[in-house]
Design brief:
The protein is an alpha/beta fold. It has 3 domains: 2-67, no CATH class; 72-127 and 313-493, Endonuclease Chain A (Endonuclease, Chain A, 2-Layer Sandwich); 130-312, Endonuclease Chain A (Endonuclease, Chain A), CATH 3.30.870.10. Helix content is 46%, strand content 19%. The chain has 19 helices and 18 strands. It has helices at residues 2-20, 22-35, 41-53, 57-65, 71-74, 76-96, 100-103, 111-121, 137-149, 166-180, 199-207, 275-291, 328-339, 355-366, 382-398, 431-436, 447-460, 469-473, 477-489; strands spanning 129-136, 154-159, 184-190, 211-215, 235-238, 242-246, 264-273, 314-320, 343-347, 351-352, 370-376, 401-405, 409-410, 414-417, 421-425, 429-430, 439-445, 464-466. The strands form 3 sheets. Strands 1, 2, 3, 4, 5, 6, 7 and 13 form an 8-stranded mixed sheet that branches. It has an 8-stranded mixed sheet with strand order 8-17-15-14-9-11-12-18, sandwiched between helices. Strands 10-16 form a two-stranded parallel ribbon. Helix 2 packs antiparallel against helix 3, helix 3 (41-53) packs antiparallel against helix 4 and helix 6 packs antiparallel against helix 12. It is globular, with a radius of gyration of 24 Å. The protein starts with a helix and ends with a helix.
Length: 493
């Protein structure tokens, strides 16, 4: 008992010493933030303010969300793989697509954008594609399940969120049927996004013959110490001929069965053709890292005989993440905005732009370009939402047309420029997607598809409310305070 009392007294004394010297320890934490992490000044100041107002707890949050000390070490192997296959894709482009940018009418004027995406992320321009756009979850997943049932060789599935509910049970049943027919099935999921799913569930899938892999698993299987470096990609590839990419995850809310969100408005692309192979390369890079298995050794994933596609839609598959030297998707967005001559249409659930994107949009507005932005009317992450509303307010006052989608929850992520080129996928227009998450988007150079997406935007306007200058200026003091606080924290959200 005396030993326990001594231990307790030592703990109490240590706590008192820590609290008496709290200012000193907080100063040490601040030094760590400033001198041991190479961050942008805006982000550094945001973390310092958090340390000042919430001592100790602020530093604990920094350890969870702010540090990137081990980033290069964590993704070293993955980065080497990316560079290797980037060189292969560059060579493939130079051999197969020389002169393509000058010949195709939908590419005319965008050859510099094509070249930039090729040089920075190895995004090969492929034109032998048919493209289908989904904005409704039931239609998307019904089509996906039907494609799964038609699979002959393999099915590769990757989602940030997979929930053990009615939707994935439908997909799972179809996958088990294909496994029994001899089709190879792999499912890659993110540990944070799927934290609500018990490990026993994935083991049961393994027993059924479905191979699974977990991206960036939690410490001791339960402790999620990191909210950064999440794999936010949503990719499905079937037999190397059909690929899916977009915003829908797997859960009942994505088919409108969650009362909290109501109807779920999203955007997903179904690509049939050569660009499915580019999605396959992206999946395999992620799978190899998570599963420690090198699928590049198996040529059958790449020796896919494609048939001629009627639409001949030009597509680049563009990836970015903390393993990339540049913020590829953000830079692509900024370049698209700078090239706009007539109109820009943006839909995103989270809008926290950095200075380069905000400046690009302001320049476009002041150059006479019609800028249209749509965000949700309700927050699923309140801090992010009010920071979003703050930036939207700046654009409204500058002359942009901004709207809140009032028919449920808007989760679509993308941009259309001049009704000629569009970029949709998994990346939100926020700092987290640009710098901290693994994302993948499809850039589509096709005036017909771009026009179709603009028409969907205009259809959404029927159930949206415009944020006018008068409406924004009349917001309550409570909302103004929320905006200011959340905008101050926006670099760390």
């Amino acid at each position: 008992m005396e030993i326990l009392e001594l231990i307790w007294e030592a703990i109490v004394a240590g706590f008192h010493f820590f609290m008496q010297n709290l200012v000193f320890f907080n100063f040490i934490f601040a030094i760590a933030v400033v001198f041991f992490q190479r961050k942008e000044p805006k982000s550094t100041w945001a973390w310092l303010l958090l340390l000042y107002f919430i001592p100790v707890l602020g530093f604990m949050f920094y350890l969870l969300a702010g540090t990137d000390t081990h980033k290069r070490k964590m993704f070293k192997t993955k980065e080497i793989e990316d560079h290797l296959h980037e060189a292969i894709r560059k060579q493939e482009y130079s051999l197969r697509n020389r002169g393509r940018a000058d010949e195709a009418p939908d590419i005319a004027g965008y050859s510099d954008l094509v070249l930039y995406n090729l040089q920075t992320s190895g995004a090969v321009l492929m034109n032998n594609n048919d493209l289908q756009i989904f904005t409704d979850g039931n239609e998307k997943f019904d089509t996906l399940i039907e494609d799964i049932r038609q699979a002959k060789q393999y099915i590769h599935i990757q989602y940030y969120i997979i929930k053990n509910d009615v939707l994935f049970n439908r997909i799972k049943d179809a996958l088990i049927e294909k496994v029994q027919e001899g089709v190879e099935v792999r499912v890659l999921f993110d540990a944070m996004g799927c934290r609500s799913v018990k490990r026993s569930y994935w083991k049961e899938l393994e027993r059924q013959g479905i191979k699974t892999a977990e991206f960036f698993p939690a410490l001791l299987r339960r402790l999620h110490l990191r909210i950064n470096y999440r794999n936010h990609r949503k990719i499905v590839v079937i037999d190397g001929k059909i690929g899916y990419v977009g915003g829908f995850n797997v859960g009942k809310e994505y088919i409108g069965l969650d009362e909290k969100f109501g109807y779920w408005r999203d955007t997903h692309l179904r690509i049939e053709g050569d660009s499915a192979l580019a999605l396959e390369v992206r999946f395999i890079l992620d799978w190899n890292y998570a599963a420690k298995e090198n699928l590049f050794k198996d040529n059958r994933y790449f020796n896919v005989e494609q048939t001629y596609r009627r639409e001949q839609c030009d597509i680049q598959i563009l990836s970015s993440g903390p393993d990339s030297a540049l913020q590829n998707i953000k830079a692509n967005y900024v370049r698209m905005i700078h090239k706009a001559e007539k109109s820009i249409y943006i839909q995103t659930p989270y809008f926290i732009p950095d200075e380069s994107m905000m400046d690009a949009l302001m320049i476009a507005i002041n150059s006479g370009v019609e800028v249209n932005i749509m965000i949700p009317c309700k927050p699923d992450h309140p801090f992010v939402y009010w920071a979003t509303y703050s930036y939207i307010g700046d654009l409204v006052m500058a002359g942009a047309n901004c709207y809140t989608y009032n028919n449920g929850f808007l989760h679509a992520k993308g941009i259309v420029v001049d009704e000629r080129v569009m970029c949709y996928g998994t990346a939100n227009m926020d700092i987290r997607s640009f710098a901290l998450n693994f994302e993948v988007n499809a850039i589509v150079y096709d005036s017909g598809k771009a026009f179709q997406m603009v028409e969907k935007f205009k259809e959404d306007l029927k159930v949206s409310r415009q944020i006018t200058k008068q409406l924004y200026a009349s917001r309550s003091l409570k909302i103004r305070i929320k905006e200011q606080v959340c905008r101050l924290l926006s670099p760390v959200l």
